[in-house]
Amino acid sequence: MPRFFWFLRRRFRMPVAEPGDQYSIWVGLIYIFNLIVGTGALTLPAAFARAGWGLSTISLVFLAFLSFMNATYVIETMACANAVFKWKRLQTIKRDSIQNHEGDSEDDLQDERPHHSNSIGDLEEPLVCGESIPSRYYSLDRRVELGEMANLFLNHTGRNMFYITLCVYLYGDLSIYSAAVAKSVMDVVCSTVPSNYTNSSDWDSLPCFNTSTSAPGVYTRLDCYHTALLTFFSVMGPFVFFNVQKTKYLQLFTSGMRWLAFAIMITMAIHLLIGSGPQGKPPSFDVTGLPTLFGACVYSFMCHHSLPGLISPIRGKARLGTHLALDYSLITIFYLLLAFTGAFAFANLNDLYTLNFVPTDNENVFLEIVEYFLALFPVFTLSTSFPIIAITLRNNLQSMFLDTSRVESYNFVLRKLLFPVVAVVPPLLLTYFLEDISMLIRFTGSYAGTGIQYLIPTFLVLSARRHCAGLLGLGVVNKYKSPFSNIAWAVFVLLWSFMCIILVSVNMFEKS
Predict the structure, then answer these.
(1) pLDDT in tens, 358-417
(2) Where are the domains of the chain?
(3) Which of 400, 507, 492, 411 is CA-nearest to residue 454?
(4) Handedness of CA 38, 42, 44, 45 (dihedral sign)
(5) Is CB count within 10 Å lower at the N or C end of the chain?
(6) Percentage with pLDDT > 70 across the chain
(7) CA gap 225, 204 in Å, rounded
(8) 275 or 306: which carries more pLDDT confidence?
(9) Looking at domain 3-511, does it have CATH number 1.10.3470?
(10) Which residues does the annotated region (Disordered) include (predicted)?
(11) CA–CA dist 292, 508 (Å, integer)
């Protein structure tokens, strides 16, 4: 083999994950399934009941389809980013190689060029590709996060909008997590609210330990909520100053706890339906509940910001899109089962579904243990995720305002103190004065969630297609191209997103 191509192949070979770091397509789909089906699913039954079972079913299926479409956009953009990195690396190595082999004549190099694509597995010239020859430039071997894609394909304004949207979404995530934990602790610690108490807006002002008295100065449910919230932040907040990584065993533990809780909730709801009949009577259509449902669905199908890290280690990605469609179909069926059973089994649904299973004075010890487990379920699972999200937010804030290539040159306050505090304090203040989880979910899902799940993937894929077409040529085929590659799909997603934001804004303005 000529020295030029031997050198080129040795230098350009892309780093791949170690065999132990890779997993099969089915394991990858399980990870994606667990990523999507998280705490957002706990908000679906209440939103489902408010919007009506008919409208909610149609909306849930439609939003699942849109989420899948934009997931394929993320995959296509990731393949485009891999192609750009490979192309740039190839050009650099060619330039270095030519400089190192100045004695080689131009004619020798021209004679070697036709053997290029056959000699080197990972490389090929753009011009040798056609419509029927998939390009090796496009791959999913290298993990490219959304932030890297934004830096690669978006302009300065687009990158700033990306980081702002991501940070707002992460702030909303932290607020929802902390409020859910504090409310769960409040409902476990405090006495059960009487079943004949119908004024839900005043529940937090009730005495915590004795609902039959209302003397001034007693310890109220709101006081308990504030105590639980401050305790949660004092325990979990300091982790944002360090680098905490999720371990494999922690992921397995939290996944097992989550699936056990979901299985118990569905089983208990079905048992109530069989034993007592439908207690809930949700309407078929109620458009006033659509904004809350939209926010809950967007939040429940969110995976796009973490998708690259789960896709890159998968072995055998040839039919990734088909398997991902199967994953989304199973998730949609699961959500419908959870929402339908909850909407019809309970006359009144809490914003957080686990709060419908608060412990009661039950003679059955096993049933009481199950109720305590469900009531404290958000505390266990969300507490393990809170530090990771807080650290992610801290890192993105640093990327927005600091030059990450010379972080060590900044003073100690900027490097170690300012951004951890800015990441944790705003969610604490927000949830201290606003414990309404449905409001938090509606804002996070409808605004920041729409940006992360719909707008950013669409703008990224449009910019990536244009960038790669100019760099590699129109004849280079991206085998990971989205099946929704027609420009009409992208226009539809953008119009739908802007319309939903306007409708949600009008609804929130009217209610304020």
Answers:
(1) 766 666 777 778 888 888 887 877 777 788 788 878 887 877 777 766 767 777 777 778
(2) 3-511
(3) 492
(4) positive
(5) C
(6) 79
(7) 8
(8) 275
(9) no
(10) 99-123
(11) 10
